[in-house]
Design goal:
By secondary structure, the protein is an alpha/beta fold. Helix content is about 35%, strand content about 25%. It has 7 helices and 12 strands. It has helices at about 30-40, 60-65, 80-95, 115-125, 170-180, 185-195, 215-225; strands at about 1-10, 25, 30, 50-55, 70-75, 100-105, 130-135, 140-145, 150-155, 160, 165-170, 200. Strands 1, 4, 5, 6, 7, 10, 11 and 12 form an 8-stranded mixed beta sheet that branches. Helix 5 (about 170-180) crosses helix 6. The two termini are about 30 Å apart. The ligand C[C@](O)(CO)[C@H](O)COP(=O)(O)O binds near residues 185, 186 and 209. Belongs to the IspD/TarI cytidylyltransferase family. IspD subfamily. Its EC number is 2.7.7.60. It catalyses: 2-C-methyl-D-erythritol 4-phosphate + CTP + H(+) = 4-CDP-2-C-methyl-D-erythritol + diphosphate. Pathway: Isoprenoid biosynthesis; isopentenyl diphosphate biosynthesis via DXP pathway; isopentenyl diphosphate from 1-deoxy-D-xylulose 5-phosphate: step 2/6.
């Protein structure tokens, strides 16, 4: 089985508010996108990477990825779903042998390799679709239209969903074909509409989505902690 990873990286990063698109924001001297793509390849499960970049930043993105040597860059679309769809089309050209596909946000640049491997391995075990998830730690309230609390939601079966999400390639193609421009906030959401089973594997705190400046500060600390030598006798 050959695995192609699609990395939607064409967002502007409005909520982060940096001077460059979010995927090009640097942490420890390297673009978030480079961290994300390198993590995918470092998992040892991914053979091809296709990146959907802002259409006016293709050269900048290619330059940021230079240390990696192996990635295909295309222009993304107006919405995340459009960027994934365009990358999926490109995957058919650059990785015709692929039968499994990952979709991974550039914004989740520090997802650990073990999470990526867990997703791929579940697809290899026959899952049509797989998402990494974390339990929700806050109490969740449902509000009415005026902002008053209507009810407290049972959180025992709620999960926050991360990326990479893994799919049998034909399943993701069918899901995007059926969506026909009617997007979802994640790709598994499109698969759910087909009535196809979506399995879960444990997510990881380091796979946080860098959305705001606060998230970026957390990500910087995560990377610093991972790079720091572990004192003798302490677990990593
Ligand atoms: N048209 C778009 C919009 C988003 N993305 C990508 O989808 C991922 C998740 O999106 P998000 O974190 O919301 O990024 P932005 O859209 O850039 O953020 P914002 O909404 O703050 O502008 C990111 O890697 C982003 O680059 C994309 O490829 N194409
Ligand atoms: C795909 C995703 O990261 C899963 O949690 C998330 O749905 C992206 O949402 P956004 O609103 O595009 O940031």
């Amino acid at each position: 089985m050959s695995v192609v990873a699609l990395v939607p990286a064409a967002g502007r990063g409005e909520r982060l508010g940096a001077e460059v698109p979010k995927a090009l924001v640097e942490v420890h001297g390297e673009a978030l996108l480079l961290h994300a793509a390198r993590g995918l390849l470092a998992s040892g499960r991914v053979q091809h990477v296709v990146i959907a970049a802002p259409s006016d930043q293709l050269d900048e993105v290619a330059a940021a990825l230079h240390p990696l040597g192996a990635a295909h860059v295309i222009a993304g679309g107006a919405e995340r779903t459009d960027s994934v769809r365009l990358a999926l089309d490109e995957a058919g050209r650059v990785a015709p042998d692929a039968d499994a596909v990952l979709v991974h946000d550039a914004a989740r640049a520090f997802t650990p390799p073990e999470t990526i491997r867990a997703v791929v391995d579940e697809v290899r075990r026959g899952a049509p679709a797989v998402v990494p998830v974390l339990p929700v730690s806050d109490t969740i309230k449902q509000l009415d239209a005026s902002g008053r609390v209507e009810s407290t939601v049972d959180r025992s079966r709620l999960r926050a969903v991360q990326t990479p999400q893994g799919f049998a390639l034909d399943v993701l193609r069918r899901a995007h074909d059926a969506a026909d421009g009617d997007g979802a906030t994640d790709d598994a959401g499109l698969v759910e509409r087909l009535g196809v089973e979506v399995r879960t594997v444990p997510g990881h705190a380091h796979a946080l989505k860098i959305t705001t400046a606060f998230d970026l500060a957390i990500a910087e600390s995560v990377l610093a902690a991972c790079a720091a030598p572990v004192p003798e006798g302490e677990p990593r």
